[in-house]
Amino acid sequence: MDTIELRGLRARGHHGVYDFERSAGQDFVVDAVLDIDLRKAAYSDDVADTVHYGELAGQLVAVVSGEPVNLIETLAERLAEVCLADPRVVACAVTVHKPQAPIQHEFADVSVTVRRKA
């Protein structure tokens, strides 16, 4: 299986358990890896035969900047649903990073990854 990877997509959202997270908002970073057969696109050289990663980025940003949720687990699930909406996508892995998570200790990253199949 081939893959399309979109990594480091940054968008502002208002997700979190705490009121201050929802009111102030914060940046979230998304990585999406799609499992897809790319042979048709490779032979046709036509963007219509693949997942347009620019359009995918816009759809993912709309979810991140859209309706708030408490958990990044929920956010990751919604993003995975967007990835799997294209019938050519066999499976996906979506990671949501929350670099400004309200953790009272120094940390490099906190993230959740979901893996889903069509």
What's the short version?
The protein is of the alpha+beta class. It has helices spanning 19-24, 39-44, 53-64, 72-84, and strands spanning 2-13, 26-36, 89-97, 111-117. The model has no long low-confidence stretch (mean pLDDT 97).
Overview of the structural elements:
With 118 residues, this protein is α+β, with helices and mostly antiparallel strands. It has a single domain (2-117), classed as GTP Cyclohydrolase I, domain 2. Helix content is 31%, strand content 33%. It is built from 4 helices and 4 strands, in the order βαβαααββ. The two termini are 14 Å apart. The model has no long low-confidence stretch (mean pLDDT 97).
Instruction: Give the count of helical stretches.
Output: 4
Shape, please? elongated
Number of strands: 4
β-sheet strand percentage: 25-35%
CATH superfamily caption:
GTP cyclohydrolase I, C-terminal domain/NADPH-dependent 7-cyano-7-deazaguanine reductase, N-terminal domain
Residue windows where pLDDT falls under 50 for at least 5 positions:
none
Structural class: alpha+beta
State the order of secondary-structure elements, H for helix, E for strand. EHEHHHEE
Q: What's the CATH C level?
A: Alpha Beta
The total number of structural domains is 1
